[in-house]
Structures are given as structure tokens and as C-alpha cells.
Write a structure and sequence with these properties.
By secondary structure, this protein is mainly alpha-helical. It has helices spanning 16-22, 25-28, 32-48, 54-72, 85-97, 110-146, 166-191, 210-216, 226-231, 234-260, 288-311, 325-347, 354-362, 368-377, 382-398, 408-412, 422-425, 428-434, 443-472, and strands at 151-156, 159-165, 193-194, 221-222, 268-269, 351-352. Bound molecules: arginine.
């Protein structure tokens, strides 16, 4: 059992059970690089304020870099009795350097350290999620562009409703993932705030320049309130909210791929490389990847709900409950990134069955609304037209026919205003091209949506690259 760095006022050793119960090292060791980077910036800040000498800062920084290497080469022994990553690193520094290392913790507390580390970690994760979302949006645009003219029945209530272009359907998901992209980009601004210098909760009497620390760590803002900085985790809740919404979108798309790949639909072929077989039924090819994505959505929602519940009763400022945030966050980011990654790869190889989709779009009275509109154009009120077409559908159904299979005489029996021109109105392609309102499924609308999407993707890509360079490029001498 290692001696506690906070042990001065204690006269009894921590019970082994309590020690194991409170330790978080197994989870938060993942933050070691951020913790060390934060400590290096803190050393420089202390030196700039003449709290330690430049030489002391240098010694500490070299010591921290050595520890980072040791962790990366698996030569670092994590000690549960030292609770967390912050204490493990500091204790090792003291062991390696002796007296000078006792100065590192001047003007800071673990509360600021953990708030910093998580923000740094989450900035990187958010950038990775943004990159994945950009890739996914590109894949969708390519798929839509490559299947511009494929017909598909559009559904409401999972009943065939009106024909659409498959490209239009795919672009609906593009829009959802674009909003997800915007949400994460927006959330980034609120996590990009530097909390060090809060010194537990009230600020510090040492004359440190927090803006300098922020600059070293590439934060665009400094937390303006020391109590808020150490006690809120709304940036985690926000990330998990945005992640949950993105998982809803992935899950809905998964559900469609599962349905569409069934023999009942037969609209899509999931590539062999992204499907699995059955251990007993030799004929089977199962859509496990979309099923797992659909299932994992529940994990991320759970992470969000647990995080909200964890926070809701906490008085200011830091409370140890907050230690539980990291497991939830890590599982949330890992799950979202894994789902995005596998989706991007799978969609890149997916094959649509244009024949089956087209046939389905041609049958099931998807042109009934258009026949009603036709009658309206001939002077009938819409409700009357609706009833009249309903009766025509009933009649056609009884004969196992579609509306377009009825003769002119048969159609005229429902309304005398039906003329020969009705048949062009009832054609699937004609129906689609008539839906040319902005945002509609007409080919020219989809083509223009694709053009806009490609331009937006370029611009979003440029903005994201600039952000990645600002946060991650390691030309600064402060990154070990
Ligand atoms: N391991 C702690 C956490 O994750 C770090 C902060 C501990 N602060 C404290 N006052 N015990 O929240």
C-alpha cells in the first residue's frame, strides 16, 4: 500500500475495501496523455508566474515526458491505492525526482485536473466523430448519386404510400447526419474551455496566467467561473445527447436495412463481408451489423440517462459522484465511433436491388393520390375525389388489378370526367417528376440537393481540417 499524497491529516490507513471501491485507475488511466500534457502546461504557467523557477519547470517537464514514455512502453505500474491517474502520475514523479516534484501540485487540484483531462479527451473524440460523420455523409451522397433513377416505394405506417427515388430516400439520411455533424460542431465550442487554475473551487492566490495555460493547451476560452469549471459536466451530457440522436439515426437506417434485406422485401443485399451465418440453418445470411447498431443505440441512450441522473442532485461544486462520468463517456464515444465506422465500411459495399424496388414502386396503388389530384384538376372537390378513387381502388383490388390496368370505361364508371390522358398521370416516373417542389423527389430536385450537399461537404471538410490542425498538430514544443 503506497502512502497517500493527501495522508497528512489521517491517522488510520484506508480500508482495503474502501480503497478498491473508490479507485478509478482502471478507467481513467486512459486519460494519461491528457493529464501529462495538462501538467506540462501547468509547469510552464507556474514558471511564468515565478512560482517555480524555469529550471524546476524543465526538470518536472522532462520527468513527465519520461513517465509518458514509460506508460506507453507498458513499463509503468499502476497502483490502485493511489486512486486515479492524476495521483499515479504525480506519485511516480515524486518517486523519480524527489523534492522538486512536490511543487507540481501548487495552485491546482485534482478537480481542475480531471475537468481538464476530460475536456481534452472529449475534444479529440468529437473531432474523430466529426470526421466519421463527414465520411458517412460522403458515402450517402455517392450512393445517392450512383442510384439517381432507381425507383422505390415511399412508406408511411410501413404501408406503400407514394413512389420516390431511392436517391431521395438516401438523401433524407444525409440530411439527418448533416444535422448531427452541426450539433457536434456546435458542442465542440462549449467543451473547448480551459478549467485549470480553478484550484479545487475558488480560484488561487498564486498569480498564474490562465490565458497562457489555455493558449498552451490550445483552448479557445478560459472557464470564467472557478466553481462552474470544476463542478459541471454539461459538455459530457451534451455530447451524449448528440450521440444519442446520431444513434437514433443510425438505428432507423439499420432497421430499414434489416427489413430491406429480408426475402419479403428483397431490396438490398448486405455484402457477405458484413453479414453472418447461422450455426444451424445453412441457408441463412443474417444482417447482424445493422442489428447490433440498432441494439447499441440503447447503450448510448443509457449512458446519457445515467449521466443526467448522476448530475441532477449534486450541490456545487465537486462531488465524488462525478468520478462515474468517465466510464459512461468512454462507453458512449467508443460505441458511437464503432457504429459509424462499421456503417461507413458496410454502406460502401451495399448493393441495391433496383428491379425489386422498382416493381414494388409500381404496385400497391401508389398512384391513387395522383388520380385524386387529376380529378381535382377536372373540377372535383378533393374530398369527393378521394372517395371516388377509394371506390376505384376497391374495384381494382377485387379484380387483382392496379389502377392503370383498368380500362377507360371502367374508370369512367367512377367519374365521367376521366379522359385518356389519365394514363400518363398514373405512370410512376411521371408521378415522381411532378413532385418538383423544393425538397421534393423529382429528379431535378434530387440533382440539385446533391449539388448543394457536395458543396457543403467541401466547406465542412475545410472547416474541420482547420479545427483538427488547431487542436491536434503537435508543432508546439509543449506537446511531448
Ligand atoms: N478521480 C477523481 C474523478 O474522477 C478525480 C478528482 C478527485 N477529486 C477529489 N476531490 N477526490 O472525479
Amino acid at each position: 500500500m503506497t502512502e497517500k499524497l493527501w495522508g497528512g491529516r489521517f491517522s488510520e490507513r484506508t480500508d482495503r475495501i474502501a480503497e478498491t471501491f473508490t479507485a478509478s485507475i482502471d478507467v481513467d488511466r486512459r486519460l494519461y496523455a491528457h493529464d501529462i500534457q495538462g501538467s506540462i502546461a501547468h509547469c510552464r504557467t507556474l514558471a511564468k508566474a515565478d512560482v517555480i523557477t524555469a529550471q524546476e519547470a524543465d526538470t518536472l517537464i522532462q520527468g513527465l515526458i519520461k513517465i509518458k514514455r514509460a506508460i506507453e512502453h507498458r513499463e509503468f505500474e499502476f497502483d490502485e491505492s493511489l486512486e486515479d491517474i492524476h495521483m499515479n502520475i504525480e506519485a511516480r514523479l515524486i518517486q523519480d525526482l524527489g523534492k522538486v516534484a512536490q511543487k507540481l501540485h501548487t495552485a491546482r487540484s485534482r478537480n481542475d485536473q480531471v475537468a481538464l483531462d476530460v475536456r481534452m479527451f472529449l475534444r479529440e473524440e468529437t473531432l474523430a466523430v466529426l470526421q466519421d460523420l463527414l465520411r458517412l455523409r460522403r458515402v450517402l451522397v455517392d450512393l445517392a448519386g450512383g442510384h439517381l433513377d432507381v425507383l422505390l416505394p415511399g412508406y408511411t405506417h410501413l404501408q406503400r404510400a407514394q413512389p420516390v427515388l431511392l436517391s431521395h430516400h438516401l438523401m433524407a439520411y444525409y440530411e439527418m447526419f448533416t444535422r448531427d455533424f452541426e450539433r457536434f460542431e456546435d458542442a465542440f465550442g462549449r467543451m473547448d474551455v480551459m478549467p485549470l487554475g480553478s484550484a479545487a473551487l475558488a480560484g488561487t492566490p498564486y498569480p498564474i496566467d490562465r490565458h497562457y495555460t489555455a493558449q498552451l493547451l490550445r483552448f479557445s476560452k478560459v472557464a470564467p467561473n472557478s466553481m462552474d469549471a470544476v463542478s459541471d459536466r454539461d459538455f459530457i451530457m451534451e455530447f451524449l445527447s448528440d450521440a444519442s440522436i446520431a444513434m437514433v439515426h443510425l438505428s432507423r437506417m439499420s432497421e430499414e436495412l434489416i427489413l430491406w434485406s429480408s426475402s419479403e422485401f428483397g431490396f438490398v443485399e448486405i455484402p457477405d463481408a458484413f453479414a453472418t451465418g447461422s450455426s444451424i440453418m445453412p441457408q441463412k445470411k443474417n444482417p447482424d451489423i445493422p442489428e447490433l447498431v440498432r441494439g447499441k443505440a440503447g447503450i448510448v441512450f443509457g449512458n446519457l440517462l445515467a449521466m443526467l441522473t448522476l448530475m441532477k442532485g449534486l450541490p456545487l461544486t465537486y462531488n465524488r459522484d462525478l468520478q462515474e462520468d468517465k466510464g459512461l463517456l468512454f462507453q458512449g464515444t467508443d460505441t458511437l465511433k464503432a457504429c459509424l465506422g462499421v456503417f461507413i465500411a458496410m454502406l460502401g459495399k451495399i448493393r441495391f436491388n433496383a428491379g425489386a424496388m422498382g416493381r414494388a414502386a409500381m404496385s400497391g396503388f401508389l398512384n391513387a393520390t395522383d388520380l385524386a389530384d387529376y380529378l381535382v384538376a377536372k373540377g372535383m372537390a378533393f374530398r369527393d375525389a378521394h372517395k371516388c378513387v377509394g371506390e376505384a381502388v376497391k374495384y381494382a383490388l377485387s379484380g387483382g388489378k392496379e389502377l392503370r390496368d383498368l380500362t377507360l370505361e371502367e374508370l369512367k364508371a367512377f367519374s365521367s370526367s376521366v379522359e385518356k390522358d389519365v394514363y400518363t398521370i398514373l405512370e410512376t416516373e411521371a408521378m415522381i417528376s411532378r413532385r418538383a417542389s423544393f425538397g421534393g423527389t423529382a429528379r431535378r430536385c434530387v440533382v440539385s440537393a446533391l449539388e448543394t450537399a457536395r458543396a457543403n461537404l467541401e466547406e465542412d471538410g475545410r472547416r474541420l481540417d482547420a479545427l483538427v490542425r488547431r487542436i491536434l498538430d503537435s508543432d508546439s514544443n509543449q506537446s511531448p
